Amino acid sequence: MATREGTVRYQQRFGDAFARTYFRRCGEFSLSSVGIGTYLGPATDAQDERYREALVTAFETGCNVVDTAINYRHQRSERAVGAALHDADVSRDEVFVATKGGFLPFDGERPDDPGSFVQREYVASGLVDADDLAHGSHCIAPAFLDDQLDRSLANLGVERVDCYYVHNPETQLDVRPREAVYDQLEAAFEVLERRAAAGDLRYYGVASWDAFRVDPEHEHFLSLPEVVSRARTAARTVGNESTHLRCLQLPFNVSMADAFTREVHEGPTERQSALWFAHEAGLDVFTSASLGQGDLADGLPDDVAAELGGDTSAQRAINFARSAPGVTTALVGASSAEHVRENVAAGTFEPLGANAFDAVFE
């Protein structure tokens, strides 16, 4: 498990190689502001090895944040993270490991008949009630998340994860009313509060795609104030002094800046953007799609690129995400050790200051 002492030790070992604001606080931890994601790639042994090599490179060159999910590459990504944690010349207490639960995972490969697999492994076994499913592939019911966390711990080969995300809860809005989804989230948070109290996770959060950056009228909108309120209620229900809800993951890049530009969440006096609300609520933000799933590595708008530090378009795109107020870590993919070195080196450049970042949108 990551610790304050371990992550500070990591920062002291690597910090001189990076710009001043590269390492940032997340609760008690000191985290790199470039993190490694594990979403893309085929479910093959060769890709597993590429991921393992890339992750070892990341851990050994100044990146101590890794993000995965049990459904990524049919559980292979979690297992590759576990292998890299074992092989890298770092201590477990130096690395912040985050994973997610929500989408029903296959095991190693996509079955010939996915529907039959889900029915046999999840519904007929009693692990999932069919009424809790959305699109036959998504569930955030308490018993399911409890089981998925156990499986993730086994895949990763760790005793505790540092953050466990409820994965894309807005998926449930396709099949049930918004209030019912808030109720689902509160029940899910109760499980995670109990697992936090038991020492199985340090923090939990919500990882989303649409939920927090679309207008309130949008079918996939979820209110951050309501989510935080439900987490506080869940903590009280299980007897915790305060909530362990700490992390928020959402897409953010030059082309998808809604989390900064769109004021959709009710604040104390006026509507706020997701980033601003998260900052005031004490939530740490981890950005997904920082490279637009690779598209921004080919280039940024000229006027934006001119303001950003970096030797390559990918580095400048990462530094745009790192510049947004309230962002702790910008997550980027780990397609190869070479790309990891390039992406982590974005941290040798200072991000934009607040005024310069605001000016991009004027």
TrEMBL record:
Span of domain NADP-dependent oxidoreductase: 35-214
Superkingdom in the source lineage: Archaea
Record-linked Pfam families: Aldo_ket_red
InterPro entries listed in its UniProt record: AKR2_Oxidoreductase (IPR053135), NAD(P)_OxRdtase_dom_sf (IPR036812), NADP_OxRdtase_dom (IPR023210)
Entries under PANTHER family matching the protein: D-THREO-ALDOSE 1-DEHYDROGENASE (PTHR43312), NADP-DEPENDENT OXIDOREDUCTASE DOMAIN-CONTAINING PROTEIN (PTHR43312:SF1)
This protein's name: Aldo/keto reductase
